[in-house]
Amino acid sequence: PMLNTALKALNNAYAKSTENAVRTYLYDLIKSQRDATDNPNNITAPAALNDMTTDQWAGLILDAAEVMDDRNAAMTRLGVSKDVALALIKLKDSGNRFMDISGKGSDTIGAFDVTGVVGDLMRVPKAPTGTAAFIDPTAVTVWESGGPTQLSNTDPVNIVDNYSVYGYMAVAATFTDGLLPVKFAAA
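Now predict its structure.
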């Protein structure tokens, strides 16, 4: 039981480490493209995040769809930080929410299931505030070599077994045109 507990902890540490590496890569990529001084890759929002209206969000989404279509990219999701998700959830149009948070709305523009990724809005955990990006799933690729792999080494002289977990992973931008960060106006 102790060995199983230790191996489970090692596997969890491996998973956390690789997940954080992918998140960091994606968030840094979004920021560097959005804020580049030379040839930035972004779509400019017409207002500051908390001043965006439902009509402005709808217009931004339509403009982004045209950009992504011109790039032959699929605009399958809008990845957002917690503050952007909260700003979207608060929006109302004619008394109805702009984004349906139950997943069952009929008079809303999109759906946002707060338990995970559903439809066209995805909250990306621990993203820096103000992060919003339209994302084609092929924009960033993660390669992993069968990890985590468990290793053991027995030392019969000292009657000791050593266990470890390892894996190989790489992350890269494989279709940068599939990423369209949103640049909000200064508040």
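Residues 112-119 have pLDDT under 50 and may be disordered.
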